[in-house]
Amino acid sequence: MLTLEQLYGINSNHTEQIAGERDGVRLQEPVAQAYIAMRDAAADAGITMAIASAFRDFERQRTIWNRKFNGEAPLYNDRGELLDATNLSVGEKIEAILTWSALPGASRHHWGTDFDVYDPTPFSTGERKLELIPAEYQESGPCYELHQWLIKHARDFGFFFPYARYQGGVAAEPWHLSQQHLANQAHAEINVEQLTNVLTKYDVAGREYVIEQLAEIKHRYIDSICNADITSGDIWFG
Ligand SMILES: [Zn+2]
């Protein structure tokens, strides 16, 4: 079980550096082991995979959030279309942020169980930059083969896609994998009262609105993930 500080991303001491990944790419030890086994199996099949982002702390998530809220980073709707933030109410702005970025304290990336995966080969020359958009994982995209392999094999290593398809909360993220057992444990520990306490301590933009709506936000953006069975099914990008 994670401590309160680990669960909400304040601490990183439940995670460790993963061998063979960039500096700073961290996961819980058993998750890292399972990931390495999966990466090796993919390599045997001629598929290269690497992690774009694994553990992220509260402060990192708070920076992303505040930049979006304050108009320093773009906002998109659930179809990925750019929004004009000047026309949005606080609630609409927060809804747009939550479609693509987690609330600080409520990111699955805090848990050390979740990570974003890609195929580094097409990006190795530096000419092309990974954007983490669905098109990169669809047919003719640079991560298509990796994604097809993961649909078939990720579950053999204990992983699933919590954002396999859009179902009214977080947008589809074909790059985001989660270690089912440990992530479910962490997820079950999250509660509105503790999260409110954490948010109260830090300068999170739009915090008053978020705290007021937190039960609804938790239901729609934290709890409404895809069933693990979808991972190996064929209902993608629906
Ligand atoms: Zn992710």
Q: How would you portray this structure in words?
A:
- The protein has a four-stranded antiparallel β-sheet with strand order 3-4-6-5.
- It has a single domain, classed as Muramoyl-pentapeptide Carboxypeptidase, domain 2, CATH 3.30.1380.
- A hairpin with an 8-residue loop joins strand 1 (16-17) and strand 2 (26-27).
- The model has no long low-confidence stretch (mean pLDDT 94).
- The two termini are 34 Å apart.
- It is built from nine helices and six strands.
- It has helices at 4-7, 29-44, 58-69, 90-100, 144-153, 180-189, 192-201, 207-212, 214-223, and strands at residues 16-17, 26-27, 50-53, 114-118, 159-160, 176-179.
- It is an alpha+beta fold and 238 residues long.
- The chain is 37% helix and 8% strand.
- It binds zinc ion.
- The site of zinc ion has 4 residues, from loops.
Structural key phrases:
single chain; 238 residues; alpha+beta; Muramoyl-pentapeptide Carboxypeptidase, domain 2; two-stranded antiparallel sheet; 9 helices; 6 strands; binds zinc ion
Task: Briefly characterize the structure.
The chain is α+β, with helices and mostly antiparallel strands.
Integer-rounded radius of gyration: 17 Å
Looking at the structure, the CATH topology is: Muramoyl-pentapeptide Carboxypeptidase, domain 2
**Architecture, CATH level 2?**
2-Layer Sandwich
Instruction: Count the DSSP helices.
Output: 9
According to DSSP, the number of beta strands is 6
Task: Walk across the major sheet and give the strand order.
Answer: 3-4-6-5
Question: Which helices and strands, and how do they pair?
Answer:
Layout: H1 4-7, E1 16-17, E2 26-27, H2 29-44, E3 50-53, H3 58-69, H4 90-100, E4 114-118, H5 144-153, E5 159-160, E6 176-179, H6 180-189, H7 192-201, H8 207-212, H9 214-223
Antiparallel strand pairs: 1-2, 3-4, 4-6, 5-6
Residues 109, 116, 173, 176 line the site of zinc ion (ZN).
